[in-house]
């Protein structure tokens, strides 16, 4: 059993995977960052570089710490390069088949004692664990977006997760300087079980013409003191991810109250996924975001 995590593999160099690599490297871990293409890894590294530069500018970290952390991150265009890691955190898209395929390729390459974690927002840890060769060393380590700024990490145990896996994961999150909240393994865990129905309801509020994009966001920012309006937050999370989470809630809890709003489905079908595609409930292609409805 691994007693100390030294090297971390991160699969998926999107907004979450790069954020996870960012905080791991700053905390002193060696990191291998993987994705399906070297271009994607390079764009992840560029965003880590830019985000660390902001932290230097704000005197949150020193320039020396930034350089040292960047040196600790190596690109891993091939999953073979994760063979010497002690912990792998999978953070590819929120699609169960994609995650299963990654685990099937990855598991034979890993050290037997390595811990395999997923950053899934909603998918059953028990079900994902059962597709691997190490259900007792499998766990949900669910970071919040943007990772460098958000304090919370949800820890989710599957039915087979060993106590030692949980303890090592808890110690790992402590070393990142983040707080944990422990959730049982039910669809979308805690944060998204509560947050996503709120976002979905905001989209229904738009769909039914109760308010415009701007007025709904303004209402929740000024009326409920949320840092971002729900539609702005949906764009920030990614509308594809929001839809996947609602589908997991709808199917997993078999309750119509979780029915994804048809307008959310339409945006995803259009490829308007929010900030990452420059268009969602707002259009981000100009200097300031413009509502699309
Ligand atoms: C879907 C899931 O599975 C789970 C989830 O994550 S759900 C989403 C959870 N996250 C939220 O709900 C976030 C809600 N929003 C917020 O809390 C805030 O708007 C926020 C923390 C994102 C920003 O807070 P803010 O008060 O606007 O702070 P602000 O001072 O403007 O921004 C902080 C700075 O951090 C910077 N920053 C943003 N992302 C960053 C990152 N990844 N790394 C480093 N710096 C970053 C910003 O650029 C900004 O710097 P500048 O002002 O120089 O541009
Ligand atoms: N967005 C959020 O607010 C949060 C998301 N999460 C979870 O984190 C995970 C990642 O989300 P997020 O970073 O937002 O998504 P992004 O779309 O930003 O990034 C996903 C990355 O995974 C890559 N990818 C796709 N298929 C594979 C594969 N087979 N192997 C390796 N990489 C692959 C994508 O490449 P390409 O672009 O080329 O397809 C992309 O770079 C999801 O499980 C999500 O639910 C958790 C907390 C918050």
Account of the 3D structure:
By secondary structure, this protein is an alpha/beta fold. It folds into 2 domains: 7-183, NAD(P)-binding Rossmann-like Domain (Rossmann fold); 191-291, Orthogonal Bundle (N-(1-d-carboxylethyl)-l-norvaline Dehydrogenase, domain 2), CATH 1.10.1040. 45% of the residues lie in helices and 15% in strands. It has 11 helices and 10 strands. The protein has an 8-stranded mixed sheet. The chain has a two-stranded antiparallel ribbon with strand order 9-10. Helix 1 packs across helix 2 (38-57) and helix 7 packs across helix 10 (239-253). It is globular and about 55 Å long. The structure holds acetoacetyl-coenzyme A and NADPH dihydro-nicotinamide-adenine-dinucleotide phosphate. NADPH dihydro-nicotinamide-adenine-dinucleotide phosphate is lined by residues 11-17, 35-36, 40, 91-94, 98, 102, 119-121, 142-143, 145, 237-238, 241, 276.
Key features of this structure:
two-stranded antiparallel sheet, N-(1-d-carboxylethyl)-l-norvaline Dehydrogenase, domain 2, 11 helices, eight-stranded mixed beta sheet, alpha/beta, binds acetoacetyl-coenzyme A, Rossmann fold, binds NADPH dihydro-nicotinamide-adenine-dinucleotide phosphate, 293 residues, single chain
């Amino acid at each position: 059993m691994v007693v100390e995590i030294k090297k971390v593999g991160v699969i998926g160099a999107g907004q979450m995977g790069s954020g996870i690599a960012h905080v791991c490297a700053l905390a002193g871990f060696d990191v291998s960052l993987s994705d399906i293409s070297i271009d994607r890894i390079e764009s992840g590294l560029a965003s880590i570089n830019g985000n660390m530069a902001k932290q230097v500018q704000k005197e949150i970290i020193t320039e020396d710490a930034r350089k040292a952390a960047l040196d600790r991150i190596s690109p891993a265009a091939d999953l073979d390069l994760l063979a010497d890691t002690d912990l792998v955190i999978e953070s590819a898209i929120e699609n169960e088949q994609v995650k299963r395929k990654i685990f099937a390729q990855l598991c034979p390459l890993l050290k037997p004692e390595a811990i395999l974690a997923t950053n899934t927002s909603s998918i059953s840890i028990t079900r994902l664990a059962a597709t691997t060769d190490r259900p007792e060393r499998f766990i949900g380590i669910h970071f919040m977006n943007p990772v460098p700024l958000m304090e919370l990490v949800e820890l989710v145990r599957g039915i087979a997760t060993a106590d030692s896996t949980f303890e090592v994961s808890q110690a790992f999150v402590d070393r990142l300087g983040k707080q944990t909240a422990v959730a049982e393994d039910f669809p979308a865990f805690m944060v998204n079980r509560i947050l996503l129905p709120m976002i979905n309801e905001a989209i229904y509020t738009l769909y039914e013409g109760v308010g415009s994009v701007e007025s709904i966001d303004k209402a929740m920012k000024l009326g409920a003191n949320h840092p971002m309006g729900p539609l702005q937050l949906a764009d920030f999370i990614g509308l594809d991810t929001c839809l996947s989470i609602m589908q997991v809630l709808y199917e997993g809890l078999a309750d119509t109250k979780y029915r994804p709003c048809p307008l959310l489905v339409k945006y995803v079908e259009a490829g308007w996924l929010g900030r990452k595609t420059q268009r969602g409930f707002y259009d981000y292609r100009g200097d300031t975001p413009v509502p699309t409805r």
